[in-house]
Amino acid sequence: MENVERIIQPRPSSIVAALYTLRDLDTDVAILHGPPGCCFKHSRLLEEDGMRVVTTAMCDSDYVFGGHDLLVDVLKKVMSRFHPGRVGIVGTCASMIIGENFHRAVEEVGPGVPVIEVEIHAGYSDNTHGAIVTLEAAHAVGLIDEGELERQKRMLLLATELEKKSGAASRDYIEPSRGDLKYKAASRLLELMRQGKRGVSVLNAKKETAYMFADVNLAVCQAASAVGAPVPVTIANLDASVGLPRIRRYAATIMAQLKENGVQVDHITGGLDEYPLTGENAGRIITERYSSYDYVVLSGVPHAIPYEAIKGMEIFSITNGPRQVEPLKAIGHQHVMVEVDLHPKTLGVRGMVESEFGETLRSML
After folding, report:
1. Domain holding 203: CATH number?
2. For the chain, what percent of residues have pLDDT higher than 70?
3. 61, 123, 227, 354: least CB-packed within 10 angstroms?
4. Which residue ranges does the record assign to the Nitrogenase/oxidoreductase component domain (predicted)?
């Protein structure tokens, strides 16, 4: 067995990645085949986002005698109680280690709707494996075509590479941090604006997190206008023609809201599920057109933008990962802020929500 150094800090779960991917596929009900407490926090958050999550509530005796009858019973209850048009069944460590057969349960019930059978556990080092397995299962029942499956897999593999290169998986342990004080960074940004400095504002966000990260870019444009500074060039991964229908809706909604608030997006880099690739695209645009500008604001996944493209600017980065602060500082980002409560605030919403950095910046005008 290859001797690979293991990351000793907590890492995202493949099971959770599977659940979020089911949500992206507009699944009505997800059945977790495992113990009642498995993935409790994320299950509750996803319920706020419109997907019901139920559990077969496996207990210690089920680990010995099997949970087939439990799964059959819960699937029948789901069909009679909720009348879903699309169901997902997600494995857990408990059900996978004893070799539960999801398809046999589905055949026994005969639900008459697509059932996405996701055989997954949390023992994978890359949580993106859970998303890939879910997409493959969705393709198997005809919910996405081959082209979309391959595009999604490519993006997920690129995301994994990005995290290992410069993200939270780049070291075996990274000290979590809340980052720089937002009012100090906002004060410095306003100082640059009042000096007439030119800037670039980049949104490079992942899926629904853009509902909050886009507010950062909105606030930056509003601040520049309020102090009479040159309006920053706005670059965003808000292509509403790319991705699953839910992801496209996110992009279309945010684009409309930015337009309503007077923000012109000057360059579109791709879709909201393409952030590893769109970061490269944003870097290329900056290198070719705006390399002489003075500052850059990066919101979402800042480490996806190549440092070589922005190293001559003063960098303001906004992330939602406490373990992303130290790697960004090490690369050379001068100001790094964390939107700690982003995830619970962006689930179940239908439009942009105010960010802490945006709120801070506006309060100082």
Report:
1. 3.40.50
2. 99
3. 61
4. 18-136
